Structure formats: C-alpha cells, structure tokens
Amino acid sequence: MAGLRKPDRGTVSVLGLDPRRDRAKIRQVLGVQLQDAYLHQALTAAELVELYRSFYPNPRSADETLDLVELSEHRDTMFEKLSGGQKQRLSVALALVGRPRVVILDELTTGLDPRARRRMWSAIEKLRIEGVTLVLVSHAMDEVNRLCDSLVLLDKGRIIAQGTPAEVTAQAQAADLEEAFVALTGRSLQDEEDL
C-alpha cells in the first residue's frame, strides 16, 4: 500500500491512487508507522516532527502532533535518548503529522507499557472519529478487537478469514480472536511471532 515493495501479483489502490505509479500523491494522503524506527539519533523529537512537517502542505503543528502521542514533555529529548516506547510513539507522530487520510500502523503498541498502550489506543480511536482510515498490522488480538471494524487474517500471505472481529471469532467457533487465530492457522500467536 505504501509502495515500499514491488508486488509479485495483484493490484492495490489507495484512495484511487496506485502506490507505485503515484508515489508523490500517495505520500500526501498516506501515513506509515513501521515497527522499527530508524531516525537521526542526534535530532530531538521536536526537530524530527518539524522536519516531517516540511514534507506536507497542511501539516499538524509540532505541538499538536507531540501532544497527540503524549510526547510534549520530551520535545527537546534527542531521539537516541528516548525509551523504546517513546521512540514508538514518535514514529506514530511522524506518520500522523501530515494529516493523512489513511494510516498504516505496524505493530502499533510494541514496546509500550500497559498505560501508554491504552493511551495510544485512545489517540487512535480519536483519529477514527475524525474519519481517518487505519490499517493496523498486529499480533495483539485484544488490540485488533478494540480498534478494528473489520479484519483480514493472513496465514503465509493468504487470506484465511475476514469480517468483523465477531464474525471471524464465530467463523472459527472460538471464544475470542486469539483462539480464532489458533483454530484457523493451527499455530499459536507466539509461533507466529517466532517466524
């Protein structure tokens, strides 16, 4: 969807745009937070947000962006000095600074403590209310259940189930999404993370 990989087959469009052909246009409507952030170590959180703001015609303010992910008090902290969870939240902030209409969130709450995780969920729920389309990539089924209106369960690149969390759970005749995953794939979530 972000045009970072060449597809081996099939097609995808984001808001009618081809991610490979319309790269410049895609960057204006799509925000991406990858699981691992590799950012300039010597820049502060605020400097990184300001740098990313310069890429967009109508970005959020640096203050609004940092506040959205509760990093205002760390605005002057260099990236290398941020904790793992703070780096993760900054990565989300950078995905949101351009006011994207679609956001890909890859393992959104990796490295966050339970309190920070719940606050991040609240921030994401606010974006949903604003009409932002969120694509969440996650092994955390409680997170998927809370944040997703619909889901696609993949196994080795193949769709094995799709629908609302309740529909997928019912399809697998399971008590919850985690049990549904195990029932539909024959593997536990831990096995999946170890692949």
TrEMBL record:
The keyword Glycoprotein does not apply. It comes from Hoyosella rhizosphaerae. Its main location: membrane. It is found in: Cell membrane. Residues 4-181 form the ABC transporter domain. GO terms for biological process: response to antibiotic. One of its GO terms (molecular function) is ATP binding. Gene3D superfamilies: P-loop containing nucleotide triphosphate hydrolases. This is ABC transporter ATP-binding protein. Pfam families: ABC_tran. The keyword Transport applies. It is a peripheral membrane protein. InterPro entries: ABC_transporter-like_ATP-bd, ABC_transporter-like_CS, ABC_transporter_ATP-binding, P-loop_NTPase. Keywords: Antibiotic resistance, ATP-binding, Nucleotide-binding, Transport. GO terms for cellular component: plasma membrane. PANTHER family: ABC TRANSPORTER ATP-BINDING PROTEIN.
